[in-house]
Specification:
- By secondary structure, the protein is α/β, with parallel strands linked by helices.
- 37% of the residues lie in helices and 17% in strands.
- The chain has helices at residues 8-24, 38-46, 54-66, 86-92, 109-117, 146-158, 174-188, 223-231, 247-251, 268-275, 301-317, 329-341, 357-363; strands at 2-5, 29-31, 49-53, 80-84, 97-103, 133-136, 141-144, 196-199, 202-205, 239-246, 256-260, 322-325, 347-349, 370-373.
- Strand 8 and strand 9 form a beta hairpin.
- The chain is globular, with a radius of gyration of 24 Å.
- The relative contact order is 0.12.
């Protein structure tokens, strides 16, 4: 039986919590995690119950399919998975691809040269208005305008990357067009402390669903190299895909599938249509006493932050514990600075403080405690 959670912290915590009960019943328990050697993983998978994250189970499946010898594989047949926060994994991240890639021999110098040119391009503010490119933030794509094509070709000719009379759309220049597009996306669609952080001189991706860092994971299609060029860190060689699978396709390989979450009923149709799973709603043990207040909308960000600080102050006066949820690392740090200015003691839980997660969570419910958290604290 595979017990699937959304992060390593929950997998280790829950396995340790339930282990005495399982062992009393004569069952063995294992935990898989990033950084384990194959023998450790093989032993964890050999247990009756194996805890781990959706990412780790998926990547182990891909690595097993790339193994040359049977004894190199670590997983056993996929019989039964119980998924914690099942809507996050099977619905929100259903189409997220897990990709194993290998390095290519492409030079990284071109990323640096294109990176110096791209900031000179101007964003189009209105449709049909002046500007070199337009942005589709939902699809995370950038499109050059006609004016932009001409401008970028002139800039590339100035720097010697394009010969006079050549077009960026010539077959021989497709790779150059690919670099320009990656650089535009890196500069205008991917923000530091929102989509990634710089850690140890490397660009480390922040998972948009869990708010956690993903060391060792890289964006594909040259995007990661373009972000590295933008941030001035060492540019790693571009990779090409060796194996990939989506979470949806991976979890459909199990003979039996089940899961739990506090927010499944709204996705009941999708669970039935895609996975053939029915949703059963279990009523709360006690009547709901939580009061859901209406949203408040502010004209400016500063007014919103001032209202949050005032609310935190009010709660502290009543010795209530406070949890402030933010959408990004950047927002959590801005709020932290404002609370410090007011002399309000607090803790910040984001991807930069993940080593202290257990301590911060343990203190968060104490009377008068103030905790600012990204969506790291949104599950489990």
């Amino acid at each position: 039986v595979h017990v699937v959670t959304v992060n390593d912290y929950l997998a280790s915590r829950d396995a340790a919590w339930m282990k005495p009960l399982y062992e009393y019943l004569g069952l063995t328990v294992g935990v898989i995690g990033a950084g384990q050697v194959p023998d450790e993983k093989r032993a964890a998978y050999a247990a009756d119950i194996t805890y781990g994250t959706n990412n780790e189970f998926g990547f182990d499946y891909l690595r097993d399919n790339m193994a040359f010898r049977l004894e190199e594989r670590v997983q056993r047949p996929l019989h039964f998975a119980i998924i914690d926060e099942v809507d996050s994994i099977l619905i929100d991240e259903a189409r997220t691809p897990l990709i194993i890639s290998g390095a290519t021999d492409d030079s990284t110098e071109l990323y640096e040269r294109v990176n110096q040119i791209v900031p000179r391009l101007i964003r189009q503010q209105e449709e049909e208005g002046p500007g070199d490119f337009s942005m589709d933030e939902k699809a995370r794509q950038v499109h050059l305008t006609e004016e932009g094509h001409q401008h970028i070709e002139e800039l590339l000719m100035e720097t010697g990357l394009l010969e006079p009379g050549e077009s960026l759309y010539d077959a021989a220049n497709i790779a150059l067009m690919h670099h320009v597009n990656a650089a535009l996306r890196a500069h205008h669609l991917f923000q530091r402390n929102v989509h990634y952080i710089i850690q140890g001189g490397k660009v480390v991706i922040v998972d948009e669903f869990t708010g956690r860092t993903m060391p060792g994971r890289r964006w594909s299609d040259g995007l990661h190299q373009a972000v590295e060029a933008k941030e001035g860190v060492d540019i790693q060689p571009e990779n090409h895909t060796l194996a990939s699978i989506t979470f949806q396709n991976y979890f459909r390989l199990y003979d039996k599938l089940g899961g739990m979450t506090g927010t499944a009923d709204t996705e009941a149709f999708e669970f039935h249509q895609i996975y053939g799973l029915d949703v059963v709603v279990i009523p709360t043990n006690r009547p709901m006493v939580r009061k859901d207040l209406p949203d408040q909308v502010f004209l400016t960000r500063n007014e919103k932050y001032e209202a949050i600080v005032a609310d935190v102050k009010s709660c502290r006066e009543r010795v209530q514990p406070v949890l402030v949820g933010t959408a990004s690392i950047e927002a959590s740090e801005v709020l932290s600075a404002l609370l410090k200015r007011e002399g309000i003691a607090h803790e910040v839980l984001n991807a930069k403080q993940h080593e202290r997660e257990a301590d911060i969570v343990a203190q968060a419910g104490r009377p008068g405690a103030v905790t600012i958290a990204t969506n790291m604290a949104g599950r489990g």
